[in-house]
Design brief:
This protein has nine helices and seven strands; from the N terminus they run H-H-E-H-E-H-E-H-E-H-E-H-E-H-H-E. It has 255 residues and is of the alpha/beta class.
Amino acid sequence: MGEDRHRRQIEGAFLLIVSKITAVSTEDAERSSAPRRLFGRSKGKALRPHQTELISQLLPALSLDVSKPIDPSALFPEPMRELRLEVGFGGGEHLIEAASSEPDVGFIGCEPFVNGVARLLSRIERRELKNIRLYRGDAVEALDRLPDASLSRVYLFYPDPWPKRRQRKRRFVSEDALARLARVMKKSAELRFSTDIDDYAAWTLARIGVSPYFEWTAKASADWLDPWEGWTRTKYESKAIAAGRKPVYLNFTRL
């Protein structure tokens, strides 16, 4: 009896979030051609001495050069069977575990926040990983330098929700960003998205719904309530759950 009630609650939540899709307009300020700042501050508290050392010494060796087109075959010391990208990796909890578990996959991580980059560099150093490359800045700048159909998977986890209406043009998910992603993603490549903000989930589903490039793969409520196999819970997600917010995990396929 309790299990049936729980299932009905899940399905009710599923219908609620889907219904919000129709309430989200895709005619927002994202149509403006003016440059958009997609992230907030780029630095927090002072770095520790070793983190400062890693930023000055290890980061240059791992950084993408976006002043010219990126050649994926030249990024890593060994050939990789595929290439994936994480937009805004935060502290790097997911990225470090993914790269550790699949050493034959190349990973690109983009993050403007220097403290998050420093934390990831510390983890890379400890594990001596060779399959991660980094870009400290707007992921769009890295996307535009990648060749067509070069990515097999893109991760977009807990992007800044920019909750105020006047700020929403800064959200990463937009018609323009989806088109940029589509160009560099292979056919049937995955776009994995998670958020604890229901408005941003609805915003994203609305834009995916009218995009000619992507399809939402969910068939039942469990497909967006349950994380992917091997999921790494980040510090941010733990805080969101503790605060009573319910994460959603949306999976999209490149058409």
